[in-house]
Amino acid sequence: MVKLKTPLPMLIFIFSIDNINACLTKKNAFFAHLFLQINKMYQDILDKKAKIGVIGLGYVGLPIALEFAQKVSVIGFDIHDGRIAMMQNKQDPSGELESSAFDNCDIAFTSDLNILREAKFFIVAVPTPIDDHKLPDLKPLLSASATIGKCIKRVIMLYMNQPPILVVLKKIVFR
């Protein structure tokens, strides 16, 4: 498994003060405000004031969740209680990870929406299997999106100093 050099290398863009000032002078205050909010969220995640939620803890989602949990607070969410129980006992249901992969991780495994509501940054890693017509079945993705919708308390209102909630979708297609 590849170790991350920084906790969120591909998910967050860090913008310099010059970039933000350039946006402000070009009357792009919306983007400047967004950049500031994203940087604040990034820092809150690093400081463990905000949590990352990983939805779908299969062979893709679980390694992602455990890797982030080495550095930041993570909520691992799955709809299967049996899988949650296994992960709480340091067992990978897919059998791909050793129990040592769970060591030194700040992660809570759950199927409880009330716990998932604590997350401010979501990563969705659910399957999109191909059907007989070679089309992806989007039901798991739609279900995960509905789950996030139940967890988000407010719509992003950047001009009202509301912190944004970010969602990253990890594409998984079976062929």
Summarize the structure in words.
With 175 residues, the protein is α/β, with parallel strands linked by helices. Helix content is 35%, strand content 15%. It contains 6 helices and 7 strands. It is globular and about 45 Å long. It starts with 16 loop residues before the first helix and ends with a strand. The model is unreliable at 1-18, 154-164 and 171-175 (pLDDT under 50).
Question: Brief overview, please?
Answer:
The chain is α/β, with parallel strands linked by helices and 175 residues long. It has helices at 17-25, 29-46, 61-69, 81-88, 113-116, 139-151; strands at residues 51-55, 74-77, 107-110, 119-124, 128-129, 166-169, 173-174. The longest helix is centred in the first third of the chain and has 18 residues, at 29-46.
Which secondary structure elements does this structure contain, and how are they paired or packed?
Blueprint: H1 17-25, H2 29-46, E1 51-55, H3 61-69, E2 74-77, H4 81-88, E3 107-110, H5 113-116, E4 119-124, E5 128-129, H6 139-151, E6 166-169, E7 173-174
Q: Characteristics of this structure?
A:
single chain; five-stranded parallel sheet; disordered C terminus; 175 residues; 6 helices; globular; alpha/beta; two-stranded parallel sheet; disordered N terminus; 7 strands
